[in-house]
Amino acid sequence: MWLITAKMTPLMQAAVFTVQVIILNHSGQISGDYPCELECHIVHISRRSELNDPGSTWGDWTREHLFKVLVIGELGVGKTSIIKRYVHQLFSQHYRATIGVDFALKVLNWDSRTLVRLQLWDIAGQERFGNMTRVYYKEAVGAFVVFDISRGSTFEAVLKWKSDLDSKVHLPNGSPIPAVLLANKCDQKKDGGQNPSQLDQFCKEHGFTGWFETSAKDNINIDEAARFLVENILANHQSFPGEENNEDKIKLDQETLRAEGKSQCC
């Protein structure tokens, strides 16, 4: 078993996991598991016909962003199910507790000039009591804090997770990273009295960017919540131009076209 240490960069940390990739493009979905030593570089961006079309909206350059997003909350609130639904469009009734941390990658053609790669870090529910969360949280730019609406005790723990998050990771200006509250398992009976107006006020008082009722089982608001978080991450990213030096640009030239349909790991 590989051990994550504080000396590792986030990409080195990610190397101990199997990268699960879905590439969304106009022709459909391509999915698979790619064991990578460092980081998967996605080469296939769009269909050849679209890139060769003089009227295509794709420019000569496309900016690529790599964003690390945490998914945190108490044990059994559905964090892994949310990630599987978002990345693979799958749901399983069989519960298996996450040990330590798991990792998945979602690739989005955000717009005609922007490729967004989300590293989704699935942090085990018991990790808040350990000493590794500072390592796991390092360089994250956004987070989902999840609770189970059918178990009131998991909502009571939300502020502890938010406090732990805010104490260990922040934006370049010292502000908290955007955190979206997910009231998961909305397909089940509620245990507690949180209504929408109360959750609105709760989020304002405690620094959450927003909240969504979600269901991984019924695929309710998973994509919407993710898009909302990415919009906020991108807005913050544009506010810190000094961070642009960390981004990669990929040239959509003939060499890229010849590599259509392939992915490379290095």
UniProtKB/TrEMBL annotation:
Cross-referenced SUPFAM superfamilies:
EF-Tu/eEF-1alpha/eIF2-gamma C-terminal domain, P-loop containing nucleoside triphosphate hydrolases
- InterPro entries linked: P-loop_NTPase, Rab29/Rab38/Rab32, Small_GTP-bd, Small_GTPase, Transl_elong_EF1A/Init_IF2_C
Membrane topology type? Lipid-anchor
- Which PROSITE patterns does UniProt cross-reference here? RAB, RAS
Q: Which GO terms describe its cellular component?
A: late endosome; lysosome; phagocytic vesicle membrane; trans-Golgi network
* Alphabetically ordered keywords of this record: GTP-binding, Lipoprotein, Membrane, Nucleotide-binding, Prenylation
| GO MF, any single term | GTPase activity
* Localization per Swiss-Prot or TrEMBL: Cytoplasmic vesicle, Phagosome membrane; Endomembrane system; Membrane
- Pfam families named in the record: Ras
Primary location class:
membrane
According to its UniProt entry, one GO biological process term is: phagosome-lysosome fusion
The protein's matches in PANTHER family, at most eight in alphabetical order, are given as: RAB FAMILY, RAS-RELATED PROTEIN RAB-32 ISOFORM X1
Family, similarity comment? Belongs to the small GTPase superfamily. Rab family.
Query: In UniProt terms, what function does this protein have?
Result: The small GTPases Rab are key regulators in vesicle trafficking.
Name of the protein this chain belongs to: Ras-related protein Rab
* Higher taxonomy: Eukaryota, Metazoa, Chordata, Craniata, Vertebrata
